[in-house]
Amino acid sequence: MIQIFGHAKCKGTRAAARFFSDRRVKVHEVDLTQKGLAKGELDSVARAVGGVARLYDAGGAHAKARGLAHAGLSDDRLRDLLLADARLLLTPIVRLGARAAVGVDEAAWRAFADELKQAR
Fold first, then answer.
1. 83: Cβ–Cβ under 8 A, 6 or more apart, which residues?
2. Which of 2, 71, 96, 105 has its CA 20 to 30 A from that of 120?
3. Is the pLDDT of residue 6 over 80?
4. Options 3.40.30.10, 3.40.640.10, 3.40.50.150, 3.90.226.10; which CATH number does 2-114 get?
């Protein structure tokens, strides 16, 4: 099943939910304002997308408000920050098993939807 990690105010998260709904693909949505990624989930998604830095929304309002927008952070420090504060994650995070896509990535979403339809 597709997992969408994001929040209700995020246009990209709403677009991902709509994308899969239009294709009648079941999704499990996780609101990151209520529940962040677990350590294992964060590590799995980071491996799938090419590293923890790809998950960090350095240009986001929350990173700017915390003074972290242009800080040169190590992967370990980023990981700790993302586990402690899910609002620093780039959203949406769309995950299918061990594969994931970050941000609005309709090509990846389409591949996930096609894979699920072929498995039926």
1. 36, 37, 39, 42
2. 105
3. yes
4. 3.40.30.10
